[in-house]
């Protein structure tokens, strides 16, 4: 391998080009099994079928082999898979028909691989051009929950845009979630997806004020504690997450959805810790698995040292507008050879600038997460060539 094989001209701020050569890949080996001290889900992305003759606004067409192979990659590194979540582009290109098939196929793959899985259930089969009713929301949720459980998976109760539109106040949320939780066969994970991830969910739990919204959520969890495995909080607010997890009844987990401050939240403090259900784990699984193995062994210095370089990468991938983080997740999977193309459902490969992708390349390298630097450089060059850059 010559030196020029691993040098690429990257576009940088101000329109300049800069030669860059990535360093060696990090020494991250698959662990002997899942982490013992924390429960950690990786929210997995989907791989588009590049040969399907589809329209970005039409039904999604997935490459099932590549999509399921990525779930096996996550299980290999000890993670549970959170399926059909916003990372899989729910509400951003992945329609309900494709989602239902994804749930069925991934749950079957989990059984075959001996992997842990939980799947998102929401209301996205409801037409977006009609005003929803509470009854329609209830039926839509129940239909998806039944499909998830029939597939052999636990349920993640996702936040519903339709419920946010038609709920008249906190009591509607209390009734809706209470009825759903009581109907499930096993305890569920409740997902509070914040406005940075989906502006349509502003005012969820019946309150614009986040403290008041948290009170409503806690009241639901307290009333139905035996039916709640945990709560995933995606607010990008570490202090609020810590305060909330201290209010949960014993046995109810806090699954951190904070892709900015996950190292400290998972590490915990003298009062407790967060478990995790994170989109960033899709991108940093090898490093995160190494760090969690160190945490299991009580080696906090190693835990901190491995995760620290991943934080600048995560903050870049999830930078505003945060809901376009999926583009960075898929781009890194492409750089690392997990898929043969950088195309996304809904055409969202175009949601981030070339400069953004170049900075992602640099930060992934700094975290040791370019597994084959020569391959990553070759693929970066292909993307840059499409932008008219001779790299």
Which short descriptors sum up this protein?
391 residues, alpha/beta, TIM Barrel, eight-stranded parallel β-barrel, two-stranded antiparallel sheet, 14 helices
Task: Describe the model.
The structure is a single chain. The protein is of the alpha/beta class and 391 residues long. It has a single domain, classed as Aldolase class I (TIM Barrel). 43% of the residues lie in helices and 12% in strands. It has 14 helices and 10 strands. The strands form 2 sheets. The chain has an 8-stranded parallel β-barrel with strand order 3-4-5-6-7-8-9-10, surrounded by 5 helices. Helix 12 (325-335) crosses helix 13 (354-366). The protein is globular and about 60 Å long. The model has no long low-confidence stretch (mean pLDDT 97).
Mean pLDDT level: 97
Q: Major β-sheet, in short? A: 8 strands, parallel, barrel
State the end-to-end distance: 18 Å
Helix content: 40-55%
Going by helix content, strand content and strand pairing, the class is: alpha/beta
Order of helices and strands: EEEHEHEHEHHEHEHEHEHHHHHH
Task: Give the CA-based shape.
Answer: globular
Strand-residue proportion: 5-15%
Question: Which stretches are poorly predicted, pLDDT < 50 over at least 5 residues?
Answer: none
Radius of gyration from the alpha-carbon trace, in angstroms: 21 Å
Number of helices: 14
Across the major sheet, the strand order is: 3-4-5-6-7-8-9-10
User: How many distinct beta strands?
Assistant: 10
CATH topology: TIM Barrel
Can you tell me the CATH superfamily?
Aldolase class I
CATH class: Alpha Beta
Q: Number of folding domains?
A: 1
Query: What is the CATH-assigned architecture?
Result: Alpha-Beta Barrel
């Amino acid at each position: 391998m010559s030196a020029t094989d691993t040098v690429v001209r990257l576009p940088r701020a101000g329109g300049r080009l800069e030669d860059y050569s990535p360093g060696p890949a990090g020494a991250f080996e698959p662990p002997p099994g899942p982490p013992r001290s924390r429960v950690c889900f990786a929210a997995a992305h989907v791989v588009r079928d590049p040969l399907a003759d589809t329209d970005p606004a039409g039904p999604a067409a997935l490459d099932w082999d590549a999509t399921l192979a990525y779930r096996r990659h996550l299980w290999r590194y000890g993670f549970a898979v959170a399926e059909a979540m916003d990372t899989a582009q729910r509400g951003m290109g992945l329609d309900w028909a494709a989602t239902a098939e994804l749930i069925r196929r991934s749950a079957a793959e989990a059984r075959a691989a001996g992997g842990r899985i939980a799947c998102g259930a929401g209301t996205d089969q409801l037409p977006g051009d009609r005003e929803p009713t509470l009854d329609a929301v209830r039926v839509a949720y129940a239909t998806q929950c039944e499909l998830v459980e029939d597939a052999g998976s636990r349920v993640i109760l996702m936040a519903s845009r339709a419920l946010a539109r038609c709920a008249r106040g906190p009591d509607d949320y209390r009734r809706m979630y209470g009825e759903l939780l009581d109907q499930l066969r096993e305890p569920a994970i409740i997902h509070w997806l914040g406005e940075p991830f989906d502006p349509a969910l502003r005012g969820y739990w019946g309150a614009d004020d986040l403290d008041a919204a948290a009170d409503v959520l806690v009241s639901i969890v307290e009333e139905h504690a035996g039916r709640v495995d945990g709560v995933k909080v995606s607010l990008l607010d570490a202090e609020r997450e810590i305060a909330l997890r201290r209010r949960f009844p014993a046995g109810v987990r806090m699954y951190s959805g904070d892709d900015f401050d996950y190292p400290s939240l998972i590490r915990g403090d003298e009062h407790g810790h967060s478990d995790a259900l994170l989109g960033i784990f899709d991108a940093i699984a090898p490093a995160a698995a190494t760090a969690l193995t160190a945490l299991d062994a009580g080696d906090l210095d190693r835990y901190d040292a491995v995760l620290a370089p991943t934080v600048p990468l995560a903050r870049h991938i999830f930078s505003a507008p945060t809901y376009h983080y999926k583009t960075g997740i898929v781009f890194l999977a492409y750089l690392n050879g997990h898929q043969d193309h950088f195309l996304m459902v809904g055409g969202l490969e175009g949601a981030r600038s070339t400069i953004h992708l170049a900075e992602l390349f640099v930060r992934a390298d700094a975290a040791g997460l370019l597994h084959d630097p020569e391959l990553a450089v070759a693929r970066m060059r292909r993307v840059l060539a499409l932008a008219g850059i001779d790299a």
